[in-house]
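PROTEIN SPECIFICATION:
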Amino acid sequence: MKYKNAAEILPASLLKELQTYINGDILYVPKADSKMEWGSLSGSRLYYQQRNREIRERWNTGVSIDMLANQYGLTGSTIKKIIYRQ
């Protein structure tokens, strides 16, 4: 991240107002565009949603939590969280 001198880019009135809150320290200004949800760009979000849906469907058909945990490489408590979360 590249730092910029606020005195070089902000109007004097805005700089003076900022200095009442933060004087001489570093301030991070986040981007204005909206944040994307976790995993939406890489496809991870969709993958886990589909996997969790499949786990719930298989559990509803009678597959045990232990069998699901072994098949998906997850702990029993994680399988329970997936099953009981709506």
Q: What stands out?
A: The CA atoms of residues 8 and 53 lie 53 Å apart. The longest helix spans residues 44-60. The mean pLDDT is 90. Helices lie at 6-9, 12-21, 44-60, 65-72, 76-84.
